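In response to reviewer comment 3 from the previous cycle, which asked for concrete evidence that the modeling workflow produces usable outputs, we include below a single protein chain processed end to end. The sequence was submitted unchanged, and the resulting structure tokens are shown without manual editing.
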Amino acid sequence: MTTLRAVLGAGLVLCAFGLATAKLPAPPPPTDAQKASAEEKKTKDAAAADLAKKQQAQAEDRVSARYIAEQKAKGHVVTPQMGPAPAAPPAPAATGTSAPAPTPAKK
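The workflow returned the following structure tokens.
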């Protein structure tokens, strides 16, 4: 009997929620002023992200320079190692109609 009450209660809540959301009007389309302010906000956010990235790089450079100087004072030789190079974009495909040359089969 308790399970039946729980199921009926859950069904009543789902029906009430469905009716409540079905009656909500659709949001109005954004106005030109809202579109302009959104573009301005997007531009400001991009500038802030670029500034944060630049500051992060400067902080990393300061820390690495300090570490290298400390190790040099201790008599250790530290060689900074760069991370992997960013992947280059793929070369554009040839527009010729010829098929690629077949690879020779190994015997």
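The mean pLDDT is 84. We consider this sufficient to address the reviewer's concern, and the full set will be provided in the supplementary archive.
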